[in-house]
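In response to reviewer comment 3 from the previous cycle, which asked for concrete evidence that the modeling workflow produces usable outputs, we include below a single protein chain processed end to end. The sequence was submitted unchanged, and the resulting structure tokens are shown without manual editing.
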Amino acid sequence: MKTNNILSTILVLGVVIGGVLPEKEAFSQTTQICDSPYDLPKEFVITQKSYSRQCRSYNSTLLTIQNASILPLGSSLRICSPFFRPDGFVVTGNSHSITQCGIPFSFYNVVTITRADGLPLNSLLDMCSSSSLNLTGWIIIQRSFNPKCGGSNPFNVVTIKRVR
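The workflow returned the following structure tokens.
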């Protein structure tokens, strides 16, 4: 997907190449759209990719997208990789699923993200060390191994703690 953010404008108009998007209220949780070369709004993530004849533009890919910003604190969601994760989320697992996210760019084409922003002081969370810690007020307190994060790194998981 390209880096321009024209889809935000398209959402306001309610039209995207290949179809019409639902009204804003219906678009707040999960919906399906035809893939396009435009970026999704930053709070949306792709949770499934599939081929669809109804998508006659771009690459015939139907995307299931979800507004991650409305997820409760501490909740997790499996999203297609290597697409970005929204602010306030950390990667807590890597996996592989052709049925969920299609032919992978790499072996791990699905990542589990967990909402960490707004968790209470002294909260602990294990995250994959291969992803960046894009949260303020959190520190790394331990390194360990867990198969859910994949790879051969003996310290592929970091435990983080909210300190402010």
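Residues 1-27 have pLDDT under 50 and may be disordered. We consider this sufficient to address the reviewer's concern, and the full set will be provided in the supplementary archive.
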